[in-house]
Amino acid sequence: MENSTPVTKILFLASNPTSACLRLDEEMREIDEGLKRSRYRERFEIYQRWAVRTRDIRRAMLEIMPQIVHFSGHGQGGENSNEKGLIFEDEAGQPRLVDGDALAGLFGLFSGRIEFVLLNSCYSKAQATAIAKQVPHVIGMQKAVGDQAAIGFAIGVYDALGAGRSVEDAFCFGCNGIQLMGISEYLPPTLVKRNAAGEVEIHEAKEFCSAHRSTQSELEKTPSLDGEVAVAPDLTSQSKSIDNGDLPCFSQKSHSIQPSQVLIYRGDNSGQIGQSLGNLTQRQSIGQGAATSSLTTSQILEIVAQVEILLMNSAMLNPAKQKALGFLEATKGEVESEQPDKSYAAKNLNRIVQKLRETKDIGSDGKPLEEDIVTLLGRLEPWLGGAFHLLGL
Q: Which of 12, 154, 178, 267 could bond to 186 as cystine, CB 3.0-4.6 Å?
């Protein structure tokens, strides 16, 4: 007897026309392996397209006719950017920015077919909002998102979908997936969907998942594909885990900042793709603009990046090194926040110093590594202000 179970087709689109070493292949592998292990694995088929150009998107959608479209790569936007959109490749393999209206127009040609779009790139909230006029559910990122956070989010989303959960549940599982990794970036994802009246609703992660969980607890639960109750994870906790880091990769190892070293984020809001550390002080931050002190966000990130390189190239043994990098990543998250918790940042930096004092590592110059890093951290006093004493230097 022929199996009549409907199959959901997923189209995975990857584009990385910059020097940043995004781990898009790891993201695809994790999604694929998760679905293969899932309870309803026979209900999903996943199709991959790499180094996609705009024409490739159209052709793939016409060929495959997917219900889910997943974009993985770079986005550009933020308050300080004049240009916003997703970054694809042109015919020469160079970056090409595609704005939300153009994407919405394309998805409009498949109206009624596509059920869910995931834009796993920085600053993709605007594009998600535009596409949501044509697609019932769209997820985008409201600010910069690190590579590891983006992967963790995708794993949570597809693990939930593979278990028969709704898109709303999957969104919350994805956010919780970032949270469980100990990364402080669980706020970037945004769910945009159309309500019964056809109006576009924008839902931020924490508020939506808290309300979604409460609704399921108090009212009739939303059934999953097999009639079981779908309960979203709890994102209401205010605690911040700092045991693990969202580690960027660098093009070369050095104790000095090199122009070819790139901060690994899935986007850029300076209007220039592939922001290098060598000239961070000449450009706006990839986060949410300049800090409200005598140091700009770009300058603070440059200091953090120098500390990160020293830690990554040190002889410090794991798990001490990973914990120190995790503390630094938590600090970076506060630097990029619109309302940074500077006391929290200072306490994380203090934990790095304590780790260095415990391990007594020696730097390449023959001096204790602690001295080099303490010197760098001392430059953060204008930004930390009254919280600087918490560094314990």
A: 178
Q: For residues 381 and 390, is the Cβ–Cβ distance under 8 A?
A: no
Contact (CB, 8 A) for 314 and 362? no
pLDDT tens digits, 54-84: 899 999 999 999 999 999 998 887 665 667 8
- 141 beta partners: 189
Contacts with 230 (C-beta within 8 Å, 6 or more apart), sequence order: 164, 165, 166, 169, 216, 221, 222, 223, 224
Residues 212 and 79 in one domain: yes
Q: Do the domain assignments include residue 109?
A: yes
User: Are the beta carbons of 85 and 131 closer than 8 angstroms?
Assistant: no
**CATH code, 200:** 3.40.50.1460
At 315-353, the pLDDT tens digits run 777 677 777 888 888 888 888 887 888 888 898 899 888
pTM of structure: 0.59
Containing H/E element for 353? helix 342-359
- DSSP type of residue 232: P
Q: Are residues 194 and 303 in the same domain?
A: no
Residue given tokens 């989303």 in the structure block: 157
Phi, psi of 68 (to 5 degrees): -125, 130
* 150 & 25 share domain: yes
